[in-house]
Structures are given as C-alpha cells and as structure tokens.
Design brief:
Helix 1 runs parallel beside helix 7 (about 170-180). The chain is built from twelve helices and 20 strands. The strands form six sheets. Strands 1, 2, 8, 9, 10, 11 and 20 form a seven-stranded mixed β-sheet that branches. Strands 12, 14, 15, 18 and 19 form a five-stranded antiparallel β-sheet that branches. The chain has helices spanning about 15-25, 45-50, 90-95, 100-110, 120, 125-135, 170-180, 225-235, 275, 290-300, 340-360, 415-435, and strands at about 5-10, 30, 55-60, 65-70, 115, 140, 145, 185, 190-195, 200-205, 210-220, 245-255, 270, 280, 315-320, 325, 335, 370, 375, 400. It has two domains: about 1-35 and about 75-110 and about 170-240 and about 380-435, FAD/NAD(P)-binding domain, CATH 3.50.50.60; about 55-70 and about 115-140 and about 245-375. The radius of gyration is 21 Å and the shape is globular. By secondary structure, it is an alpha+beta fold. A hairpin with an 8-residue loop joins strand 16 and strand 17.
Length: about 425
C-alpha cells in the first residue's frame, strides 16, 4: 500500500498550486481529478467537454433559472477563464485575520501579471474605455494572466481555452508538479474521507468504475462544490448551507462603430464601484453558443437575437452577492438552490444602468440593447474560513484541509484565480511545516 505525503482532490488553481508547492519540496503528491484532460482547446466544443453538464448546471429553483460554471476536467474552470488578474481583496480577508500580501506578490511574479499593449487590448475595448471615461467614470486597462509573447491580436478565445499557451491556467502548475514527481489520477472520483482516531488518513472513491483507496498524511479538498458532499459524509454538516456565486449580468448592444466579439475579453474595465457598491464592470459577452442558452433562459422568443452574436458589444457587471441558498450534493442535475436577493438585484440594476449608458455612448441604439438574466459565475464560500475551516484551512477533522474558492469568507465579486492561488501557496507553506 503506497502512502503519499499529500493527496489533493481536484486540479483547479487551488489544488494544482498545493500540488506544485509540495512537489517542489520533494513530497510525494497525488492529484485526483474526476474528469479527464481535454486538449482540443479554443472552440465551442471544448467548453461543453470541460464543464459539468456541458455548461448547463442550473439551480433547483428553476424560476428564475440561475446557471453557474462548474468544471470537470484537468485544470478546472481556469482553462476557460478570461485571464483577468485581480488580487485578493484585503478587506475580505482582514475580517478573518489572514494576510495574503506575501503570497499575492509571489503570484504577481510567477503568472505573467500585467496590462496588455494596445494591439492586444483591441480597438473596441479602447473605445469603450474612452467612452466610459468621457461619461465621468474611471476605466483603465486591467491586469491579465497573459504571456504577451504568445498572445495574438483580435483573439477572443480565452473563454474557450487558449490553444497557444498564452493564458495561464492551473494546468501549468499541475504539469510542473507532475514533472517534479507528483502523480495524476484522471477519471478518479473521490467520495469519502478515510478517518482513523479522528484524523484523515486517506480517501476512497472510484476510478474508471473501479473502487479505489489512497492513503496520505494530509488530504486537501480542492474540488469546489464537490467538497460539500465529501465533508457532509464525513460528518461536517455545516458545509454548503449557504454560499456565494458572484452573480453577474451581461448587457449587450449593437453599435455601428465597433463590437467586442473579436477582442480580448476583460482587458479594460473599472473597480471604482467595488468598495462602495460591491460590483465591478468589465467588457465581455457570451460566445454564440452561451448566448443562445442565456437567451432561451430569458424566453424562447428571444432566441432569434442569437443571430446577432458576432455583432454585439458586450459588458458584464459582477457583484458580491449575499450568502444565501444551499448546496445539494446528491442532485447531479440541480446541485444547488439560489436566486438573487433583493440586495443583489439592486446591485445588478445599478451596474446595468451604467453599462447601458456606456453602450449608448458608443452608438448602440436603445432598441438593440439586451439585458440577459443574472447568472452565477462560480460557487464559492461553501466551506468558509471561520465556519467550516480555520485560518490554516483545516477542518474539524485533523489533517483534512480545503483549498479553493470554497473557503473564502464572503463573496469576492471578483475573478477568483489570484486569490485561490495565493491561498494555495499559503497552505503549501503550512503543510511543509507540519510534515517536517
């Protein structure tokens, strides 16, 4: 029976970071990933193959229908992110006594963080930024996890997976961990924690239909919403009783002068409303296939508008939503219940009005402007610091940790990768101290 120093369940930004940090210290590491490794990136099919339920994971409360993004593939949802780099919000972590300053700086140095040159930002984004600033707002270029030497102009493929290796994803850290000796078990679903004398000593589940058990000195759950079911079966019942999804809403319009369908998503934007109102605004719009689904959720009569998918100039507001709803681990099709609260709707509405003003400024007539229904960006805060895990990210079961967006103490309302990677680095340092 082989024993590892650390088993990491999940291969997204949190899990891959922990695996990489531990493998660099010479520790025996296993990454267990329930999905496979889809490598044909940069197309609509890649989105369906990487996301759970082909990207159609929706709330149990069907009206209004809320959709969220849950990945089931090596690298997690980071494979399909826009590469938008926003550091951990200090205010959120100050409340639980955690300082991520040092780890956040490590991330800045390692993940190509920086603003893109104008030719990669694209003229449509630059024009939107100019229009917003003319209206009295304060827009600027946004930091990105992009290698400018590999990126090309007029490419919107970030949300379909970058096949050039220009955008950072958790696969970079996962591959480095493997090169350092870590093992990767694909198509391996972990269901339960093996506990002896009150301590986690391993995990069990199935791999390609066969039961498996793995043993380790430390176990780190980094499977996002999947953490909840594992923890509840282990007796930690408070997991997933409320959570956040960083509700977002897209608004698009057809301008005769520009469209954002062929430019880098989220290359400009504003955080000026974040501290005061709890939301950010960034230029991005769904791909044609995503747009068709979101229009159908709005009402079947809206589906013909998808014919204009490549003409829209699109903007998105993302909010810090209220901690409400519940995770339902046993329901594969409807694994959660959540809808926007009254406070959430006010934030979305305020952001929506700002976005419509900007779209009008760039020449989009009112009759062309569409507002899609709110969607959930990604489930988070299901296993919060101070509630399910302590400040070392350890659960009430010794040697069992969580490290991904599930541990954030409140909704971030921001792209989560920088925060999660910083948490993974911090946990890696703690694990190394405890394993000495």
């Amino acid at each position: 029976m082989k024993e590892y120093d650390v088993i990491v369940v999940g291969s997204g930004p949190g899990g891959a970071t922990v695996a990489r940090e531990m493998s660099r210290k010479g520790r025996k590491v296993l990454m267990a990933e329930r999905g496979g490794r889809w490598n044909w990136l940069g197309n609509t099919l890649s989105v369906a193959m990487i996301l759970q339920n082909y990207g159609l994971t929706v709330s149990k409360t069907l009206f209004p229908m809320t959709q969220v993004t849950i990945a089931k593939n090596y690298g997690g949802a980071s494979t399909l992110i826009c590469g938008c780099a926003m550091p951990p919000p200090q205010r959120v972590f100050n409340e639980v006594g955690i300082d991520l300053t040092a780890e956040a700086e490590e991330v800045r140095k390692e993940l190509w963080v920086g603003k893109l040159p104008d030719e990669l930002v694209g003229q449509a984004n630059l024009r939107l930024m100019e229009a917003a600033n003319d209206l009295g707002y304060h827009w600027d270029k946004v930091d990105k996890f992009i290698n400018v030497d590999k990126c090309i102009p007029d490419c919107p493929d970030c949300m379909m997976g970058c096949n050039r290796g220009a955008k950072w994803s958790a696969r970079f850290y996962g591959d480095e961990a493997i090169a350092n000796g870590a093992e990767l078990a694909l198509h391996t679903r972990i269901d339960d924690i093996i506990v002896e004398n009150g301590k986690a000593v391993g995990v069990k589940g199935s791999s390609r239909g066969k039961p498996v058990s793995y043993y380790a000195k430390r176990v780190v759950l980094s499977s996002g919403i999947g953490n909840v079911g594992i923890l509840r079966r282990a007796g930690i019942k408070e997991a997933g009783r409320t959570f956040a999804v960083d509700f977002l809403q897209f608004v698009g319009g057809i301008s005769p002068h520009l469209n954002t369908s062929t430019v880098q998503p989220m290359a400009v934007g504003t955080l000026e409303h974040y501290e005061s109102d709890g939301f950010v605004i960034l230029p991005v719009f769904p791909t044609w296939s995503q747009l068709t689904v979101l229009l159908a959720m709005k009402g079947l009569q809206h589906i013909p508008k998808a014919l204009n998918a490549f003409r829209y100039t699109g903007l998105m507001v993302k909010i810090q939503d209220d901690l409400k709803g519940e995770i339902h681990p046993s329901n594969r099709l409807f694994p959660f219940s959540k809808e926007p609260s009254h406070n959430d709707k006010l934030k979305l509405a305020k952001g929506g009005e700002i976005m419509k003003k900007v779209l009008r400024k760039v020449g989009a007539p009112d009759e062309s402007i569409i507002e899609l229904n709110p969607s959930g960006a990604h489930p988070s805060a299901t296993c919060r610091i101070g509630d399910v895990v302590d400040t070392k990210l350890e659960t009430s079961i010794a040697n069992l940790y969580c490290c991904d967006a599930s541990v954030v103490p409140a909704a971030l309302g921001l792209p989560v990768v920088w925060t999660v990677v910083a948490l993974g680095k911090r946990l890696g340092k703690h694990l190394e101290r405890t394993l000495m």
